[in-house]
Amino acid sequence: MISTFLRLIDRIFPPKSIYAHCDIPCGIYDPHLAQVAAHTVIRMTNMIKSLEASSENPDFEERKKTISQISRLTAVKEEHAELVKHEIRILWGDYFKPVFVKEYPNLHELVSETMRLASTSKQELDEQAANNLLESVQKIAEVFWKTKGVDTVKVKTTYPSEKEIVVPKQTE
Amino acid sequence: MEPLIKEGQGVLINRLAYLFSQPKVSDIVALNAPNIPNKLLLKRVEKVLKNNKYIVVGINKVDSTDSRKFGWVSSKDILGKIWLKY
Predict the structure, then answer these.
(1) Does the structural domain A17-168 have CATH classification 3.40.50.300?
(2) What pTM did the predictor assign?
(3) Based on the structure, what is the number of domains in chain B?
(4) What is the ipTM of this complex?
(5) Cβ-defined contact of A19 to B39 (cutoff 8 Å)
(6) Cα-to-chain-centroid distance, residue A61
(7) Which of B11, B35, B58 comes nearest A22 by C-beta?
(8) CATH code where residue B36 lies
């Protein structure tokens, strides 16, 4: 009876549509990959820096081997610095909305700083920049989880970079 | 939100429900879709955060665009509570 009455009202005054279903089943965002990539940048930077020649004037074979190693390590370093930028761009462009920027006013600067540090890590062999890059990505990860109402914790990784990673805090 | 609400069903929203109180966990609420003007969503309150912020999710979590995608919503975006469906 009420239903019929309300349907009749709807015919006279068409109601506004309300959506209970999604547009695209997505919602898969996670700053984890950016952090792992930043760890890789640190590791590659350290590995290049630790390369040493056997003598002041190494032979041609050793030079070839070292050049090859540096080329490979540099390629991976640059690839992962770019991966950090890619992942952060996705969070910035698709996930973070204006209200989050209002809530976390340093977010804009944080993203911008991360981009700059990733570029420096690509261009140079700068251990400090690589470490700062990871710290900056970790701060973004903390903000990301806060916007979801999830507490975070920094845990020591088993990666050779020997640094930490920000993960959601496990609740009992 | 199926099977709770089927496509094409009408819902009546009580816009006075949160005049003197705040949404609670499990309330089915109508809200403005973040970043999409003039689009309304119907979601369930999953978590109440500090400072009048809420985590809202669809009942069919696999198929829902909700706080897992757009993060928390503020109380000013929540328009009211579902009252009856028809």
Answers:
(1) no
(2) 0.64
(3) 1
(4) 0.74
(5) yes
(6) 39
(7) B58
(8) 2.10.109.10
